């Protein structure tokens, strides 16, 4: 009797294992489940996604499916085939996975808001006349902060700081003042934001330790309170960007508590990338003298009516083209922007690749594009992809280079720091302008040099792959001082 029960239970276990064990079908991508049941490759993926996916690419090619914490994720690394994923709104969906991540990180749910309505509101405020006003406000705040931070220091007195800390602090505070228009708590918001942002990837992956969880929850709740509107609900026509956003949420039926939480999501979305991007750009310039001289030479050619910090100048970056500066920024983003474009398969789909092959994608699976690995770090597209080349995006006649190839076919997507298609980052133009304004101000108004002339840029923090701009694992120590007013353009 006992033997019969044992055989029955053993057989039942085998049937359960067979039922829940994934097997690759004939027309599906290569399947790599990993050695750990259910968990699969989750640990390796979370530790260093770029290293892991590069290993999978070498093993399986440009398309493969991996198991990650119970999910099956098909990774597509052929940029010539990206449109089949980016443009599909019938078989693929990006909202469900995004909403789950937003709930996990920001404890936020906005079920009444349609993504199209929110995007339409964002586009209205980050395009056209609204964008021009934001850019102008950002430029003024950057100048004022740069000047006020030098208060108490003599004109020839050097200051020392970490470059990442300097860039993140200045750009974050200027962005916060521009969008949220709150001058009373800027320093406190920045301090809490950095604590929260440092734990954000662990929040997303549910890998916080007990002490870290308490810190993350405390910073999140503190930020909710700090970002609470300073005006009464309802009333006058929205004036500031934040006021307009809350007005939009109210019209969509979002309650006051979720409005506070939504403000933190917007703060992170708008401020998490510019500071790190400026750090890498300046870091590459400081460690590549030829690139620094090329950018300074271009800046010297710009016509400035007034370069005084006390009187806001006409922004020369808006009045003149800067192809060298733009190439340096594009190269910086190629090396350090690591977004992941994710979709959920809501109906079985046949994926047609650019090479003519077809693969079946199962309903319930996920699809991931990782442009950092391909096209951005693909040696067939970008020669010596690990090396910073400031003129990589320049033609010989100093015009923008936009022709890149893979397998002798010209690429539509050769650098994707902002995503692509209908879901491309709405604030791209605002972010690009802010980064360029910031770097321009520092180069024209500060003497800056590395404390150690032989220093190298720190390595990237590998846990940040998939979350926008990479951040450094460490910092680059620099010293700087204000230039004398009459020397600002002569000595640049």
Automatic annotation (TrEMBL):
<keyword id="KW-0444">Lipid biosynthesis</keyword>
<dbReference type="GO" id="GO:0001516">
    <property type="term" value="P:prostaglandin biosynthetic process"/>
</dbReference>
<keyword id="KW-0643">Prostaglandin biosynthesis</keyword>
<feature type="binding site">
    <location>
        <position position="273"/>
    </location>
    <ligand>
        <name>substrate</name>
    </ligand>
</feature>
<keyword id="KW-0479">Metal-binding</keyword>
<keyword id="KW-0472">Membrane</keyword>
<comment type="function">
    <text>Catalyzes the biosynthesis and metabolism of eicosanoids. Catalyzes the isomerization of prostaglandin H2 to prostacyclin (= prostaglandin I2), a potent mediator of vasodilation and inhibitor of platelet aggregation. Additionally, displays dehydratase activity, toward hydroperoxyeicosatetraenoates (HPETEs), especially toward (15S)-hydroperoxy-(5Z,8Z,11Z,13E)-eicosatetraenoate (15(S)-HPETE).</text>
</comment>
<dbReference type="InterPro" id="IPR024204">
    <property type="entry name" value="Cyt_P450_CYP7A1-type"/>
</dbReference>
<dbReference type="GO" id="GO:0106256">
    <property type="term" value="F:hydroperoxy icosatetraenoate dehydratase activity"/>
</dbReference>
<dbReference type="InterPro" id="IPR002403">
    <property type="entry name" value="Cyt_P450_E_grp-IV"/>
</dbReference>
<dbReference type="GO" id="GO:0005789">
    <property type="term" value="C:endoplasmic reticulum membrane"/>
</dbReference>
<keyword id="KW-0349">Heme</keyword>
<keyword id="KW-0456">Lyase</keyword>
<feature type="transmembrane region" description="Helical">
    <location>
        <begin position="6"/>
        <end position="21"/>
    </location>
</feature>
<keyword id="KW-0812">Transmembrane</keyword>
<keyword id="KW-0275">Fatty acid biosynthesis</keyword>
<dbReference type="InterPro" id="IPR001128">
    <property type="entry name" value="Cyt_P450"/>
</dbReference>
<comment type="similarity">
    <text>Belongs to the cytochrome P450 family.</text>
</comment>
<dbReference type="GO" id="GO:0004497">
    <property type="term" value="F:monooxygenase activity"/>
</dbReference>
<keyword id="KW-0408">Iron</keyword>
<dbReference type="GO" id="GO:0008116">
    <property type="term" value="F:prostaglandin-I synthase activity"/>
</dbReference>
<protein>
    <recommendedName>
        <fullName>Prostacyclin synthase</fullName>
        <ecNumber>4.2.1.152</ecNumber>
        <ecNumber>5.3.99.4</ecNumber>
    </recommendedName>
</protein>
<dbReference type="Pfam" id="PF00067">
    <property type="entry name" value="p450"/>
</dbReference>
<dbReference type="GO" id="GO:0020037">
    <property type="term" value="F:heme binding"/>
</dbReference>
<keyword id="KW-0644">Prostaglandin metabolism</keyword>
<feature type="binding site">
    <location>
        <position position="110"/>
    </location>
    <ligand>
        <name>substrate</name>
    </ligand>
</feature>
<feature type="binding site">
    <location>
        <position position="104"/>
    </location>
    <ligand>
        <name>substrate</name>
    </ligand>
</feature>
<feature type="binding site">
    <location>
        <position position="366"/>
    </location>
    <ligand>
        <name>substrate</name>
    </ligand>
</feature>
<dbReference type="GO" id="GO:0005506">
    <property type="term" value="F:iron ion binding"/>
</dbReference>
<dbReference type="InterPro" id="IPR036396">
    <property type="entry name" value="Cyt_P450_sf"/>
</dbReference>
<keyword id="KW-1133">Transmembrane helix</keyword>
<keyword id="KW-0256">Endoplasmic reticulum</keyword>
<keyword id="KW-0276">Fatty acid metabolism</keyword>
<keyword id="KW-0443">Lipid metabolism</keyword>
<dbReference type="GO" id="GO:0016705">
    <property type="term" value="F:oxidoreductase activity, acting on paired donors, with incorporation or reduction of molecular oxygen"/>
</dbReference>
<feature type="binding site" description="axial binding residue">
    <location>
        <position position="425"/>
    </location>
    <ligand>
        <name>heme</name>
    </ligand>
</feature>
<keyword id="KW-0413">Isomerase</keyword>
């Amino acid at each position: 009797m006992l033997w019969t029960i044992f055989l029955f239970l053993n057989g039942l276990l085998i049937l359960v294992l067979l039922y829940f064990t994934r097997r690759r079908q004939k027309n599906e991508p290569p399947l790599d489940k990993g050695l750990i049941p259910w968990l699969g490759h989750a640990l390796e993926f979370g530790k260093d996604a770029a290293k892991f996916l590069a290993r999978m690419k070498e093993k399986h090619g440009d398309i493969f499916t991996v198991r990650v914490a119970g999910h099956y994720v098909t990774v597509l690394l052929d940029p010539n085939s990206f449109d089949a994923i980016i443009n599909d709104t019938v078989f693929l969906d990006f909202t469900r996975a995004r909403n789950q991540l937003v709930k996990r990180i920001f404890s936020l749910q906005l079920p009444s808001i349609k993504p199209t309505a929110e995007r339409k509101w964002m586009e209205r405020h980050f395009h056209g006349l609204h964008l021009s006003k934001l850019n102008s406000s950002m430029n003024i705040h950057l100048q004022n902060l740069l000047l006020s931070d030098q208060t108490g220091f003599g004109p020839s007195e050097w200051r020392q700081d970490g470059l990442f800390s300097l860039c993140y602090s200045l750009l974050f505070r200027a962005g916060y003042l521009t969008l949220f228009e709150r001058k009373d708590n800027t320093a406190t918001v920045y301090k809490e934001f950095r604590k929260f942002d440092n734990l954000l990837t662990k929040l997303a992956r549910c890998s916080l330790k007990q002490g870290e969880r308490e810190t993350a929850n405390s910073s999140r709740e503190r930020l909710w309170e700090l970002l609470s509107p300073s005006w009464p609900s309802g009333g006058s026509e929205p004036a500031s960007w934040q006021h307009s956003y809350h007005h939009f949420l109210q019209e969509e039926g979002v309650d006051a508590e979720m409005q506070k939480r939504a403000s933190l999501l917007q703060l992170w979305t708008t401020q998490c990338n510019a500071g790190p991007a400026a750090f890498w750009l300046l870091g590459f310039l400081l460690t590549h003298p030829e690139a620094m001289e090329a950018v300074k030479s271009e800046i010297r050619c710009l016509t400035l009516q007034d370069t005084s910090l006390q009187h806001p100048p006409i922004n020369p970056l808006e009045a003149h083209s800067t192809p060298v500066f733009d190439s340096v920024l594009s190269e910086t983003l190629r090396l350090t922007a690591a977004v992941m474009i994710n979709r959920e398969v809501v109906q079985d789909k046949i994926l047609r690749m650019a090479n003519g092959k077809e693969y079946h994608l199962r309903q319930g699976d996920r699809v991931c594009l990782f442009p950092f690995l391909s096209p951005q770090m693909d040696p067939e597209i970008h020669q010596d992809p690990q090396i910073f080349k400031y003129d990589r995006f320049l033609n010989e006649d100093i015009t923008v280079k936009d022709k890149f190839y893979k397998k002798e076919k010209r690429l539509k997507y050769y650098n994707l720091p902002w995503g692509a298609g209908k879901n491309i980052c709405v604030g791209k133009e605002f972010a690009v302008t802010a980064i360029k304004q910031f770097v321009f101000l520092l180069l024209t108004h500060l003497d800056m040099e590395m404390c150690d002339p032989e220093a190298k840029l720190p390595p990237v923090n590998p846990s940040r792959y998939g979350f926008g701009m990479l951040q450094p694992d460490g910092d680059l120590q620099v010293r700087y001082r204000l230039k004398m007013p009459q020397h600002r353009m002569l000595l640049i």
